[in-house]
Amino acid sequence: RRAGNVRFVSATSCCPGSRKLGLVCASNSQSSVIEPAKLPSSPESGSTPKKSSEAALILIRHGESLWNEKNLFTGCVDVPLTPKGVNEAIEAGKRICNIPVDVIYTSSLIRAQMTAMLAMMQHRRKKVPIIVHKESERAHQWSQVYSEETKKQSIPVITAWQLNERMYGELQGLNKQETADLFGKDQVHEWRRSYDIPPPNGESLEMCAERAVSYFKEQIIPQLVSGKHVMIAAHGNSLRSIIMHLDKLTSQEV
């Protein structure tokens, strides 16, 4: 149910030189615990440094978008949330309101950013999510916060195109049912659910995973290793890619 399903991952130090992930999936008002998994090693050192603190990783898929509502292939087209999607994001925020968050990562697409902002507005700590602008030196300078007290009451929001939804190529903007009628149900299912077969001039899940997991390893794992609590608001396929990496799923399992 898009933002209605929140995946919570707590990373806890368990023994020297290693870290474990206790995976918890929150759906509706219930949670279930899944088997622990080791946090992948630091890409720089080849091993995970010792850390006594605990870190949390929260993965949230965006709420319903205007093109979800119309049953259109969206991909990397930048479409906002529907009122229902707004409510889904708010509900997701209520479910994680007691979990600490130090930094937020979203894709460069507005539906993921709206979801992150709306979810954090429900948080009990009432910290203000602020998008970090680094697209140019001027943008970075002009968006600086000069009050240390205000900084303490803020959460940086880092946007990254690498976390964008899978690019659906020539399917973007097409109605999913009409596309199935045109190309055949099996062909469309193969484009959508296979691991390494892309739609025409688009990305396969494998191609999406290459960029999303690389970014996760390079930018987000170091934050977790340092003890930071991280939330990622992104998309079905970029999040599937990260879960595939964390859970060590095969291409068939994912």
UniProtKB/TrEMBL annotation:
<feature type="binding site">
    <location>
        <begin position="74"/>
        <end position="75"/>
    </location>
    <ligand>
        <name>substrate</name>
    </ligand>
</feature>
<feature type="binding site">
    <location>
        <begin position="236"/>
        <end position="237"/>
    </location>
    <ligand>
        <name>substrate</name>
    </ligand>
</feature>
<dbReference type="InterPro" id="IPR013078">
    <property type="entry name" value="His_Pase_superF_clade-1"/>
</dbReference>
<feature type="site" description="Transition state stabilizer">
    <location>
        <position position="235"/>
    </location>
</feature>
<dbReference type="InterPro" id="IPR005952">
    <property type="entry name" value="Phosphogly_mut1"/>
</dbReference>
<feature type="binding site">
    <location>
        <begin position="192"/>
        <end position="193"/>
    </location>
    <ligand>
        <name>substrate</name>
    </ligand>
</feature>
<feature type="binding site">
    <location>
        <position position="111"/>
    </location>
    <ligand>
        <name>substrate</name>
    </ligand>
</feature>
<dbReference type="Pfam" id="PF00300">
    <property type="entry name" value="His_Phos_1"/>
</dbReference>
<feature type="active site" description="Proton donor/acceptor">
    <location>
        <position position="165"/>
    </location>
</feature>
<keyword id="KW-0324">Glycolysis</keyword>
<feature type="active site" description="Tele-phosphohistidine intermediate">
    <location>
        <position position="62"/>
    </location>
</feature>
<dbReference type="InterPro" id="IPR029033">
    <property type="entry name" value="His_PPase_superfam"/>
</dbReference>
<keyword id="KW-0413">Isomerase</keyword>
<dbReference type="InterPro" id="IPR001345">
    <property type="entry name" value="PG/BPGM_mutase_AS"/>
</dbReference>
<feature type="binding site">
    <location>
        <position position="176"/>
    </location>
    <ligand>
        <name>substrate</name>
    </ligand>
</feature>
<dbReference type="GO" id="GO:0006096">
    <property type="term" value="P:glycolytic process"/>
</dbReference>
<comment type="similarity">
    <text>Belongs to the phosphoglycerate mutase family. BPG-dependent PGAM subfamily.</text>
</comment>
<feature type="binding site">
    <location>
        <begin position="165"/>
        <end position="168"/>
    </location>
    <ligand>
        <name>substrate</name>
    </ligand>
</feature>
<protein>
    <recommendedName>
        <fullName>phosphoglycerate mutase (2,3-diphosphoglycerate-dependent)</fullName>
        <ecNumber>5.4.2.11</ecNumber>
    </recommendedName>
</protein>
<dbReference type="GO" id="GO:0004619">
    <property type="term" value="F:phosphoglycerate mutase activity"/>
</dbReference>
<feature type="binding site">
    <location>
        <begin position="61"/>
        <end position="68"/>
    </location>
    <ligand>
        <name>substrate</name>
    </ligand>
</feature>
